[in-house]
Amino acid sequence: MNKVAPIYYLLILFFISVLVRLPHIDRPLSSRYEWVTAHTLVTLNIWMEEGITRHNFNPIYTFTNPNDHHIKCPISGVSDEEGNYYYVSYPPLAFILPFILFKVTNLPLSALTLESFNILLHFLCSLLIFFIIRNIYQSKRGERAALAGSLVYIFATPNLWYHANVYFSDILVQLFFLLSILFYLKYSIQVERQRFHLLLTCTSVFLMVYTEWLGLLAGGILCMHALFIRKDIKVSFLIALSSLTAIALFVFQYSSIAGMDSYIDTLLHRYAERSGNSGPVSIFDSGAHVKFLTMYMRNFFPFFILIFFSLACLLISKKRNLQVSNRTELMVLALVGIPVLLHHYLLFQFTIVHELSLVKGTVPVSLIVAFLSYRVLKRTDLPEMTALRYLYYIVFAGMLCMSTYFYYTHILKPSEYLSLRLGTQIKETSNADDTIFFKTTKTLGGSMIKAPKNFVMAPQFQYYSGRCIQVVPNENEAVNHLKEYNKKQGIIYTIENSLYKVESVRRVYNPDYTDNPDLNNSSSLP
C-alpha cells in the first residue's frame, strides 16, 4: 500500500457514506436532535440580519421584531433589558465559525448548507484520526490500521446521523479535540519543528475550550500530562494559559449581557441540571449506569464485535511474539479516553438523556479498533496466517455494513414534519404586529419542552415561522403577557388534542395597550 492509496481509499469510502445519507439530507428539520440544527440556524439568521457585532458575538435567540421579545426560549439562559434571550450553556465558537464561513463565501444560509458543513467536519475528523494513528506507527501496516480507525469513525452509527443532520457545539469540538491530540503527539515524538507544533497545540486547545466543555476537560488532561508525565512545566503552563484565555473570553462575553451574577447563576443551574444533581438521573442510580452501557452497546455493537474478534485473532496467533503495548498508544488513548469519560460522568444526566453525547465516544472506539487492527495485521502477515488475515478483512467490512444498517434501524424514524407545517401556517395567518401564542398543556410528542414555569416551543418552530412563540395554558395567560409587556395583540394557535393540526386560531388584544385603549379583549379570526 503506497502513500497515496490509504487517503484515496478513505475518500472513496467517505463518498459512499455520503451517498448512504444523501436521501436524508435537506429534508425538513424534525426529530432526532435536529432541533439543535434549527437552534443554530435561528442564531445565524439573526446575526445575518442584524450583524454579529451588535450582540457582541453572543448567540442570540430572539428575533428583531419587538413582539418576539420577552418570550422565554427553551434553550436560552440569559436575557438583557430589551427582552432578548441568549444561549450561554456553551462557549460560542460553534455559532461564530459557520457564520464567518457563510459570510465570507456568500453561501446561502439554510439547513442544507449547515448540514454540508457538518459533513465536511466529519471528513476532516476522520482524516485527523488517520494522521494520528499513522504518526504512532509510521509504517505501511500502520497506514492500514489508520485507515481502519478512520472507517470506524466514518461509519459509526451515531456519526452517520449526527455528523450530517445534527450540527452543534458537540460536533465542532471533535475537530479541535483531534487537532490538539495530533499536534501534541507530533510535539511529543518528533524532534524537529517542536515549537511550531507546540504553537499549533496551544491554538487548538484555545479553539477547543472556546467551543465546548469537552475542550476544557481535554485541555486539562493535556496540561497534567505535560506537567506530571513529561515533566515540562513550560508546556503545561502554555496549555493552561490557552485554556484560561478562552475561558476568560467567553465569560467576559456572556457576563456583558446581564451581569456576571446572572451568568454564573445560569451556569450553575445548567450544571446542576446536566450533572444530575437537580434532576431525575443521578450518577448514584445503578439503573442509569445500565442505560449508559446499553446506549453504547446499541450504537457501537458492530465495533464491539470487531474488538472481540480482533482479540480472538490475537489469541489464535499467540505463538508469535509481539509487544503487548506501546507507550505512545497508551498516551494517546489516555489523552482521548479520560476527557470523554469525565464528560460523560461529570454531565451524567446530559449523557443519559441526550444520545448525541455518544459522538464523543466514537474517537476512543476508533482508536481501540485501529490499535487492535495493527496487531492483527502484524501477527497475520506470515503465509500460514493469510486466511485469517482475509477473514479479518471480511469481518471488518461486515461490521461497517452492520453499523450502516443500524443507522437506518436505530436512528432514522418516520416524521410528520410538524414544525414545517405549523411554521408555514404561522407565516400565512399572522403579521408583524402579532405576538405568537401556542395554547397547550401537553408535550405533543416532544414538540414542547418542559420549562420551570411552563412549556416552551422546540426550536424548529421558531426557525420555520421566523417568530418566537410563547406557550400558554389558556387565553388569560396570553392576555396577561400582552399587558405585562405592553404589546398590542396576539394570535393563539390551539393544538391541545392533536399533534398534526391546529384546532383553532384566535386573535387576542391587550385592553390596556396605550395606543389602542378601546379594543375588545378578544375576537375570532375570519
Secondary structure blueprint with pairings:
Elements: H1 4-21, H2 34-50, E1 78-79, E2 85-86, H3 93-105, H4 111-137, H5 140-155, H6 157-162, H7 169-189, H8 194-209, H9 213-229, H10 233-258, H11 260-275, H12 286-316, H13 327-346, H14 348-353, H15 362-379, H16 386-411, H17 418-429, E3 434-439, E4 448-450, E5 455-457, H18 459-465, E6 469-472, H19 475-484, E7 489-494, E8 504-509, E9 522-524
Parallel strand pairs: 3-6, 3-7
Antiparallel strand pairs: 1-2, 4-5, 7-8, 8-9
Order of helices and strands: HHEEHHHHHHHHHHHHHHHEEEHEHEEE
Overall pLDDT confidence: 91
Number of β-strand runs: 9
Uncertain segments are 516-526
SS summary, helix count: 19
Q: SS-based structural class?
A: alpha/beta
What is the end-to-end distance?
72 Å
Binned strand content:
5-15%
Give the biggest beta sheet: 5 strands, mixed
Q: Gyration radius, to the nearest Å?
A: 26 Å
Outline type: globular
Task: Name the helicity range.
Answer: 55-70%
Strand line-up across the major sheet:
6-3-7-8-9
